[in-house]
Each structure stands twice: as structure tokens, then as C-alpha cells.
UniProtKB/TrEMBL annotation:
This is TFIIS central domain-containing protein. It holds the Pfam family TFIIS_M. One of its GO terms (biological process) is DNA-templated transcription. It comes from Rhizophagus clarus. Residues 1-94 form the TFIIS central domain. It comes from the Eukaryota. Keywords: Metal-binding, Nucleus, Zinc, Zinc-finger. One of its GO terms (cellular component) is nucleus. GO terms for molecular function: zinc ion binding.
Length: 126
């Protein structure tokens, strides 16, 4: 284990900075140490110990690459849900014309300005 830790630290040192006082070096060490100590992520630790992930390659892993499969898919599904909440479908929007003073006119009638798309929920509030 000590030899494995030494290889990980040496690869971080040679690939992130020229001194142990370098911020990039320290940040990378903290990140890797945090993930290697995480008791809920034994999957990552086992991959490093068994050699599936080489000690020399640990320095270049991102946070997502160090996550367990369960946590990774949980994070991806949460991201998908957030994106779906941000997307507005055309059926949810109503085209409105802008009046010359910048206020909204009625649905596509009158108005001298350009067209804007307004959420149906917003129209209910007005």
C-alpha cells in the first residue's frame, strides 16, 4: 500500500507542478486523498488497489471518474431532471407582440415590435 501511495503521489507531483507548494499540486492531492478515503466509495479504492486503474493514472481522473457507478448514474439522472425543468416546449409558450413602449400586446395582434414567446403560466398570472 505504501508503494502504491508513493506512485500516486509521484505522478501527481510530476504532472501538476514543480514544487510541493504549488496550488494545483495541493488541490489535486486533496481531491485524490478525499476520494481514496471515502468509505462509501470502496469501488474506486478497489480499482486502484487491484490495478484496474494504474497508480500513475490516478492524477488525471476527474471527480466523475472517481465516483462509484451508483453515484455517477444518480448524478446523471439529477442533471437530466434539472435540464428537463429548464426546457420550455413550444406548446407551453404563446407568441406575443411587443408594443412600442415595451409592454406586451395581445396574442399576436397589434403591436409594432418584435415577437416574444411567453410562458402560458405567466399569462395566467397577468
Amino acid at each position: 500500500m505504501a508503494e502504491l501511495a508513493k506512485k500516486i503521489e509521484e505522478s501527481i507531483f510530476t504532472n501538476t507542478g514543480s514544487s510541493s507548494y504549488d496550488v494545483k499540486y495541493k488541490t489535486c492531492c486533496r481531491s485524490k486523498l478525499w476520494n481514496l478515503r471515502d468509505k462509501r466509495n470502496s469501488e474506486f479504492v478497489n480499482k486502484v488497489i487491484s490495478g484496474i486503474i494504474k497508480a500513475e493514472d490516478v492524477y488525471k481522473l476527474t471527480g466523475d471518474e472517481m465516483l462509484s457507478h451508483e453515484k455517477y448514474y444518480q448524478k446523471q439522472s439529477e442533471l437530466r431532471r434539472m435540464i428537463e425543468n429548464c426546457v420550455r416546449y413550444e406548446s407551453d409558450l404563446v407568441p406575443m407582440k411587443l408594443e412600442s413602449d415595451g409592454s406586451l400586446g395581445s396574442c399576436m395582434s397589434g403591436g409594432s415590435g418584435g415577437t416574444v414567446w411567453v410562458s402560458r403560466n405567466m399569462l395566467d398570472k397577468f
